Amino acid sequence: MSIKKLNRAYLKLYMISLIGITLVFLVFGYSILKSFKEEQLDTMMEHSISVADQYSYMISTSVEASGVINNLLTERIITIGKTLTKTKDWENIDIMDLGKTFDLDTLNIYDKTGVVVGSMDSANLGYKADRLHPAYTFIDSNEAFHIDSFDEEANIDSNYKFAYFKLDDNKYVQIGILQNRIQNFVKSIEIQSSLERIKDNENYEYMSFIDDTNTIQISTDTDRVGRLVVDNKMISIINNDKREGILRDSAFGRVYEVLVPVYQDGKKMGTLSMAKNISSTEEMISRITAVGLLVITIIYTVFLFLVTSTHKKSKELVGLAYFDSLTGLPNFQYLKEKMQESLPQTQGQKKALILVNCNNFKMINMLLGYDLGDELISEMGKKINTISNEQITVVRFTADRFLIYVEDYQERTDLISLLEEIDQLFKEPLRIENTIKYLSLQYAIIEFEDVDKTMDQLLKEVLVTIGTLSPNGINYAFFTYNTGRKLQLHETIENDLRSVLEEEEDSDSSLHILYQPIYSLKTGEITGFEALSRLVSPKYGEIPPLEFIEVAEKKKLIEPLGNLIFVKACQYARKLADRGFGHLSVSINISGLQILQEDFIDMVQKTLKSHKVNPESITLEITESVFMDSLDMINHKMEQLRAMGISIALDDFGTGYSSLNRLKSLSVDILKVDQSFISPITHENNEQHIAQDIISMAHRTGLNVVAEGVESEDQILYLLRN
């Protein structure tokens, strides 16, 4: 999967999670708030129905009694008595409140022995009726109720109308109303009065009685009397004999109106309407809603933060997996997956993989330090990435190397033009903290259409191709068949070197040192030896030094290899001294990368000490190209070595970057004239050569001179004369 697709997948997952969580919280919040509101309304509904049930019998009786004026007091008492016989759980009822509710002047509860166990008047508690008392007589009768006549012997103002009613639990109730309240009683049987009392006792806004024509016959709100119910929902509830409540606006504000049918002997007599103002309830709901929304918002915010953090971490993981943190460019893994995905879709199109190598970066990095080296790589990445487009992908490969993947180009010249464009980007030096550095770039290119090779194989081929380039020649090369053979050779050399360095006992690979004598033309005597390393491969035989040194540098084996050669040369110097030739020197070639290692001086000192070698018998040879980017650092290390007594020889002088004028600034003792200046000297061509100038200048600066590759007597004579 490409990075774009992967990012889209993560974004899609993030959006789905975000939308899902948002919907869950919206539904959850709405459900919670709706449930709370419904619970409040259900509570009001249940309470209203309970009130209606408690008073509906009285109301229905009052409706019936409104047509029976005669014998009002008796009927009133009978009505109240019947109501009381329906009452349950007397232990938990406030008899005083109950008596006041029914507008009674006395109410006593007797047990089966005639003792008062409950009363509106606490003074009556414990009173026991004697056998002559009507209450006692009523106990033994089979009557369900009994009504006494007025007490003629008592004062008229205190005459009571008593009635006795049997209860279900072997108890009976005695109720009484004063005679002088007959007129009040007549009034109390009116529904209007009943509704007023219920309204006041239960804190309703208004109460109404609706007849079977849906007309409001009686109401505590007189403005409603005579009105016809027109609300369709109310009409539906009334006509279907439901117990139900509705929210509606009224002259009293927002009310919750509960409708309960009223029955008498199984026959519907009308509908009781009870409306309670819900302003305080709605305020409470609003407050709780606000708190609930705040809590839900906080929880939602936390979840949103967690989801967003997870999404961000996922993107960061993608960045870590597919992008280079230093340059911000895609990395090799990105390129690998991109190629695997795109190759099947681009069959028949020309494609190329280009390795960009900065061949002087290692020296610059050692000279400037790793931090500034990182800045240099970052700037390189920015410049190279400017060529990116739909067909060109730039990725960072290793420390100082980049890969460019080119798709769907026409000719090889297009690739060469691309390389020239990159060269133009680096024509000007890079400035890193007041340091100016020119970069030397090299390119290895492999072209393909339909690949039957693995990505690793492609990489090996471009890596070998880059190794075929020389510092001073053309800076690009295309992979060829011969390059492939060189790849096999380098792989074998690498394995042979590792076997030698790891001292594998069963390995046929070996590294041995040949010691080439150094003659003095003045004395005709040997003054020393130059250590020449040779690698023997079981497959290829003896490998030239330039070949295996190149592989060692590329595979980062040059430091341990150089140290091994130095140790072997010191062992040889020790043997010479033991045999009485301690005055002879041993010259050892040192690579620039080796000498720039921080522990190089320590390694030299420890090796000399462990083999008891006189530092003055050791000469270290270093090529002049090493000084190109790190003159000051190399010079400083040369001075340290010379202070120990070690001689320094400048190898292959004249082939690299040094000049005769610059020679004076180098901390060296010996100048080695390259063989390319000696070979032209022949008997037939005995004119003045540049070698004469080099020798003359070296002598004037106090340097000893060693000529390399002297093979004829004419060359010896020429050197003697000069």
**Rg over CA atoms:** 57 Å
Which stretches are low in confidence, meaning pLDDT under 50 for 5 or more residues running? 150-158, 183-188
Q: Can you say what the CATH homologous superfamily of the domain at 491-668 is?
A: EAL domain
Strands, count: 25
Q: Level of helix content?
A: 40-55%
Structural class: alpha+beta
Rounded average pLDDT:
80
- What is the count of helical runs? 22
- Alpha carbon gap, first and last residue: 72 Å
Quickly give the CATH architecture of the domain at 491-668: Alpha-Beta Barrel
* CATH fold descriptor of the domain at 491-668: TIM Barrel
Class of the domain at 491-668, according to the CATH hierarchy? Alpha Beta
The proportion of strand residues reads: 15-25%
**Overall shape:** rod-shaped
Largest sheet: 8 strands, mixed
Tell me about this structure:
There is one protein chain. With about 725 residues, the chain is α+β, with helices and mostly antiparallel strands. Among the domains are: about 85-185, 2-Layer Sandwich (Beta-Lactamase); about 330-480, Reverse transcriptase/Diguanylate cyclase domain (Alpha-Beta Plaits); about 490-670, Alpha-Beta Barrel (TIM Barrel), CATH 3.20.20. The strands form five sheets. Strands 18, 19, 20, 21, 22, 23, 24 and 25 form an eight-stranded mixed beta sheet that branches. The protein has a five-stranded antiparallel beta sheet with strand order 2-1-5-4-3, with helices on both faces. The chain has a five-stranded antiparallel beta sheet with strand order 7-6-10-9-8, with helices on both faces. Strand 14 (about 430) and strand 15 form a beta hairpin. The longest helix has about 60 residues, at about 5-65. The protein is rod-shaped, with a radius of gyration of 57 Å. It starts with a helix and ends with a helix. Mean pLDDT is about 80; it is low at about 150-160 and about 185-190.
